Amino acid sequence: MNWIRICVSIADDPAIGAIADACDIPIAEALGCVVAVLCKLPAHAKTGDLSAIADRSLEKWANWEHERGAFATAFRRALCTPEGTVAAWERHNGAAMREADAARERMQEARRNAKANKKSDTPTPLAERSANVRRTVREPFASNGTGRNETPPSSPDGSESLPVRPVPTAQNAALPETTTPPQPASGIFAEWERQLFAAALPHEAAALEHICAQATFRPAVIGELYAIASGQHVVRGEHAPYREANAADVMRAVSEFACKGREWNTSFFRGVVRTILNRPAEPPDAAQREQERLAKAVASRVTVAQTEAPRTAEEIEAGRARREAAMAKFRAEFQANRAGEQRSAELTGVGSIVQTLVA
Prior knowledge:
Number of helices: 12
Largest sheet: none
Oligomer: single chain
Distance between the termini: 112 Å
Radius of gyration: 38 Å
Order of helices and strands: HHHHHHHHHHHH
Shape: elongated
Number of strands: 0
């Protein structure tokens, strides 16, 4: 453990002032001695219990150079419980240290499982991978920053080399870029691709096939998608609850990425994944997602059908009568307006004749 939590207002704590007064030292020196002791607790008293720690050891941790026993007595009186435990240790550091130890154990277990899978050359299905595994995974290929590979990539187990784009020569330098067909995935990348397609809905599978077909190096796309979907590369949402991406989120992001019509870009795709993570989560299994989608569609249709109440013959006849009355009223108003316009035109014509005769 190489860190501890300390309250930002610890210098204003009355306990620090009590220690300074009891030892007749400045506040700054008392604060430094207390922090020095707290920094030793993760290694020597992880639970904060100092009942078995001698006063001499406590003052050695604090780098105390004044009267022997003065600081240890003041420290225990101001900051410890009657049982000898630091009062605020559990609240600030106890739970955090246990969580850090548990996370470290999960990472070690994940590394052991990864080594076992690598030796057996048996990829772990997406459904069995934990979304909480936090690991740093190297990219399966080297890049010079331009999107092109400098060295021939190989599969993670080193058992086979992956296809590489041909190096331009005098014979093929004049050929257009489109003459090099996309390289298909092989080996373990083919298994990853199969699992990604199994987690996709029909429109998402079509989008994934489109992206892979447009990509120059298909295994690079498959490796990035699988790393995010399996939890090897953790991508979280930008808003609470900051959930991590699973296979369903990756496939939803694939669909949206394909709709944008852009060439494959890892950073841009991860941004699309973060946008998806800000929306409600969906089950990682494609069959469950399809069932939920169909259930929502059926429910919406049933709701519409239930709101349309049947009408009786009297209601139908009353509606027809209202429509005929409204049409008759419209015809009467239209005829009246038309007659008024004709009368106005006649008066305008007479006025023009009178003005001509006067002139």
